[in-house]
Every structure is written in structure tokens, then in C-alpha cells.
Write a structure and sequence with these properties.
Strand content: 15-25%
Number of domains: 2
CATH architecture of the largest domain: Alpha-Beta Barrel
Number of helices: 8
Largest sheet: 6 strands, mixed
CATH class of the largest domain: Alpha Beta
CATH superfamily of the largest domain: Metal-dependent hydrolases
Helix content: 40-55%
Distance between the termini: 16 Å
Radius of gyration: 17 Å
CATH topology of the largest domain: TIM Barrel
């Protein structure tokens, strides 16, 4: 049985707080078999990880910002730089889908229902699957994870689960299980990822971790004003985390649970 965290960010993302070396070290410590480093609009993290894998399974990946939401491109060989153009910081979804298919990759919608009740039908038709558990969605948006799982079952799509880790504390909080031997190879994992049934593990990531990476992004973008706002959000995140952890609800999400589809 392989355990792979399918959604992790390195410092090749504008808001990532882990180097690739940090990620690979933590993946080994956690006993995971592999990881998909899917940096924002960048293939650099995956490329570096593949060169340093030393026995770990590295799923080559990118997380694209598109006009239909964030998309995880798996088993690709590059990003869209120099190929596609962005408009207002986002790529055209249909152009991204075409590029990913041309590279023989799979396209999955990341946290597809976070902050919205509907996922664009035209996008659902073209994606290979949905992210059914994102650890960063639990504290405020666990309903969105539940909606994604239901949609996978309704639409007969593949599924993935990932921590969406930007900090070490989050890594491994969600992962997809693959009923495959350790040396199965990427092609077999790719086939298994497209399957519509299987299992995954999910656990919440503290909101303060999100606020910490958000602080970094705001500082880079807005300078001192962004730093102040980011610090306030981080403090609020600590308070919300404390309330969530102390509540008697969602015990499974606090300790982690294996889910079946």
C-alpha cells in the first residue's frame, strides 16, 4: 500500500515556507512513500524534488491558478511559462487543460468547492478528478471537502487527497492510498489515480498555518502594511484553532481518519 500526499508547496511558491530538502526529509520521517510538490504555477519544486528523490516517489505536478479555480496538474513535464499567457494573474482553464493533456498529464480540481457552492460544469467535464480532502479546508470549509467527495461519486471521477502544506506542521495531514507495491512506477500510479474508488486519509491543519503562509505572501506583496494585516490574521487564526480543538465536535478530523470511496 502506497501513501502519497498529493498536494504540497515548497518555497518555489510565493507563500511556501519549506525548501524541497525540508519536504523530502519530513516525508521520510512520516513514513510516506511519496509526495506531489505542486507549486503555484511553477514546476521548479517538482523538478528539484525528482533530482533529489533518492528512492521516494515524486509525482511531477503544478498547481495552476485559472479562471475556473485552482487546478492540480499531475504527471506533467513543465509548467505553462512561455507557453500560455495569464490575464489578471490567472490562466485560461481550457488552455491549461489542453496543455496538460498534451503532456500526457492528469488534471484535478484543487479544493473545488472552497468558497463556492457550484463547480463550473464545463470544467467538471474536462477534469480527470477532484481533490476530495484538503487539510486546509477543515477548520472553516470542511463542507467543501464533503461536497467534493459527493461530486466524485455522482460524476464518476478520480480523486486525490492532499495536505496543501505550506509549512512543515501540515505535511502528511492528508494522503491518497494506492493499492500498489513500493516499486509500482509512475505509470501504474497514474492509472490508479484515475480510478473512481479507493481510500484516503484526512486530518485538519491548523488555521494558524494558513495564516502564517498568508503573512509571507502579504509581506512580499504589500510590504509593511501587508505584514501588519498578516500578523492580525495569524493571531485570529490561533484563537480560532484553540476554539476548534477544544470543541467536542469533529473528533475524527482532529485525530485523522481513513475514508473510503
Amino acid at each position: 500500500m502506497l501513501k502519497i500526499d498529493m498536494h504540497v508547496h515548497s518555497n518555489h511558491s510565493f507563500d511556501g515556507l519549506m525548501s524541497v530538502d525540508d519536504i523530502l526529509r519530513k516525508v521520510r520521517k512520516l513514513g510516506l512513500d511519496g509526495v506531489a510538490i505542486a507549486d503555484h504555477n511553477s514546476f521548479a519544486g517538482s523538478l528539484e524534488a525528482m533530482a533529489k528523490a533518492d528512492g521516494l516517489i515524486i509525482i511531477p505536478a503544478v498547481e495552476y491558478s485559472t479562471d475556473c479555480g485552482h487546478m492540480l496538474a499531475f504527471f506533467v513535464c513543465s509548467d505553462a511559462k512561455g507557453i500560455l499567457r495569464q490575464k489578471n494573474g490567472k490562466y485560461n482553464f481550457f488552455e491549461v487543460a489542453k496543455l496538460v493533456k498534451s503532456q500526457g498529464g492528469l488534471l484535478f480540481a484543487a479544493h473545488p468547492y472552497k468558497g463556492r457552492k457550484n463547480f463550473p460544469p464545463e470544467a467538471l467535464h474536462l477534469v480527470d478528478g477532484l481533490e476530495v480532502f484538503n487539510s486546509r479546508c477543515v477548520v472553516r470549509h470542511q463542507t467543501s471537502n464533503n461536497m467534493a467527495q459527493r461530486k466524485v461519486q455522482e460524476a464518476g471521477k478520480g480523486f486525490c487527497a492532499g495536505s496543501d502544506a505550506h509549512t512543515p506542521k501540515e505535511l502528511g495531514n492528508a494522503c491518497r492510498f494506492f493499492d500498489l507495491p513500493p516499486k509500482a512506477g509512475l505509470e501504474n500510479i497514474k492509472k490508479a489515480l484515475a480510478e473512481t474508488s479507493g481510500s484516503y486519509f484526512g486530518k485538519f491543519s491548523p488555521l494558524s498555518c494558513y495564516c502564517r503562509s498568508d503573512l509571507l505572501a502579504r509581506r512580499k506583496r504589500d510590504g509593511f502594511a501587508g505584514l501588519v494585516k498578516g500578523c492580525l490574521r495569524f493571531a485570529a487564526g490561533l484563537l480560532i484553532d484553540a476554539k476548534y480543538i477544544l470543541s467536542r465536535q469533529n473528533k475524527d478530523l482532529k485525530t485523522g481518519k481513513i475514508y473510503e470511496i
